[in-house]
Design a protein that fits this description.
This protein has 406 residues and is α/β, with parallel strands linked by helices. The chain folds into two domains: 3-56 and 337-388, Urease, subunit C, domain 1 (Roll); 58-322, Metal-dependent hydrolases (TIM Barrel), CATH 3.20.20.140. Helices cover 20% and strands 26% of the residues. The chain has helices at 85-88, 107-113, 147-156, 175-187, 204-211, 237-244, 260-268, 292-302, 307-312, 316-322; strands at residues 3-14, 19-28, 31-36, 44-49, 54-57, 59-64, 93-99, 121-127, 161-166, 191-193, 217-218, 248-249, 338-351, 356-370, 373-377. β13 and β14 (356-370) form a beta hairpin. α3 packs across α4.
């Protein structure tokens, strides 16, 4: 057959290629083979009716934590991380960027025990601290960070490492940022900053207006201590100036890194994060985050926006921000990483961990394809009715037999 399967009559949304209309999409050998208004069904081995559903590239989550093999109880290098595939595919996510869980001295273990075994397309930001997020204390001593060790680790893992991560710093100075800048000079990687503790000597506006450069990333941008709106509810001018400088703003929802009181007024004034990410880990998977689908629905509750702009922030934008070539688009020849969505309408509630916000729309991931293979199918849309299967289906072992009762 010319195609392995065709997704028929779905509303295709591909921000990278500016597609936002009903189209058919065909896949062959794990790649996007065709996208057109009316592909011939007879040329495909299987055809799936997507009427009433949205078809997007597989989503990208650029901020999550997956070093679950680290072995430390109560910390992100260990028990607070998650096994990616079980929490990404059900939410339409096919590409992940671990956000600095590992540093140069434990990245090799992270790669061999987690990254190389995952089905998700996997990248990482490398923590500026040598042992990453082993403990918060491990991130407090910039004078001990090995710039040479970081560069060596990056050179050995250029196919995976896409950024420099600075996180949880509580010092009074800019030590961790300055160290990251020295690494950036040698690698050209973007810096993602989790600002950590807020100190009078290093105000947040100085971070995004002076310390960071175009292409760098401020994550947790709606964290409660970040000055977002003034007493009159107006977005501070420095944030617009930072965007003009080319600073990327990343949602990084997390447990306690997002509040409606900042997000709702800011987003309704047009200050919308460039990238929506989860900061997914064990402490929020059953709480405020749940999954990427919940985050997207929450963003629609915060601020009405066209779906192409919503999905842009989890496909084309993060791919550009982290230089994830090939991810986040449905171009011909691209890996067939595809998510299919239904939109429920009604009365729904969302939380920032403390408060509640009502919304009228909720996205649900119906199907996820990774490299053209089904890795999630909520309503069994890609399966045949059991009555149409061979009489003895389900018996696969060569020596299996149905033993009749006596």
């Amino acid at each position: 057959m010319k195609y392995d399967f065709i997704l028929k009559h779905g509303h295709v949304i591909d921000p990278y290629n500016e597609i936002d209309t009903v189209m058919d999409l065909a896949v062959k050998d794990g790649k996007v083979a065709a996208i057109a208004p009316d592909l011939c069904a007879a040329e495909a081995a299987a055809v799936y009716d997507m009427t009433g559903l949205y078809v997007t590239p597989g989503l990208i989550d650029t901020h999550a934590h997956f070093y679950y093999t680290g072995g430390l109880p109560g910390f992100i290098v260990g028990d607070r991380s998650l096994m990616a595939d079980y929490f990404t595919f059900p939410a339409g996510v096919t590409t992940v960027v671990d956000a600095g869980t590992a540093g140069s001295k434990n990245f090799a273990h992270f790669r061999t025990t987690v990254i190389d075994r995952a089905k998700s397309r996997f990248f990482a930001s490398l923590n500026i601290a040598d042992y990453g997020m082993s403990t918060y204390q491990s991130e407090q001593f910039p004078e001990t960070n090995s710039v040479e060790g970081f560069v060596r680790c990056w050179e050995e893992n250029k196919d995976i490492i896409r950024g420099i991560k600075v996180a949880h710093y509580w010092g009074e100075d800019w030590g961790q940022i300055d160290c990251a800048k020295r690494v950036q000079e040698k690698t050209g990687l973007p810096i993602m900053v989790d600002y950590g503790h807020f100190r009078p000597g290093r105000p947040y506006d100085q971070l995004v207006l002076e310390k960071l450069d175009a292409g760098d990333i401020a994550t947790h941008c709606f964290r409660a201590p970040v000055p977002i709106v003034d007493d009159d509810g107006k977005v501070y001018d420095y944030l617009w100036k930072a965007k003009e400088r080319g600073i990327w703003f990343d949602l990084g929802h997390g447990c306690e890194s997002f509040v409606f009181r900042s997000a709702v007024p800011a987003m309704r004034q047009g200050f919308i994060p460039d990238v929506f990410s989860t900061d997914l880990h064990a402490a929020n998977i059953n709480g405020a985050v749940m999954d990427m689908a919940n985050i997207l629905s929450k963003m629609l509750a915060c601020c009405e926006m066209p779906l192409i702009d919503l999905f842009r922030r989890v496909t084309a934008n993060p791919a550009k921000m982290m230089k994830l070539d090939g991810a986040g688009n449905l171009s011909l020849g691209a890996d067939a990483d595809i998510a299919v969505w239904s939109m429920r309408e009604g009365e729904f509630g969302f939380t920032d961990g403390k408060g509640r916000l009502s919304g009228s729309k909720k996205l649900e991931c119906e199907i996820t394809f990774r490299g053209g293979k089904v890795v999630w199918d909520r309503n069994a849309r890609t399966y045949l009715p059991y009555e149409e299967l061979p009489a003895w289906y389900g018996i696969s072992a060569p020596d299996a037999r149905v033993i009749p009762t006596l």
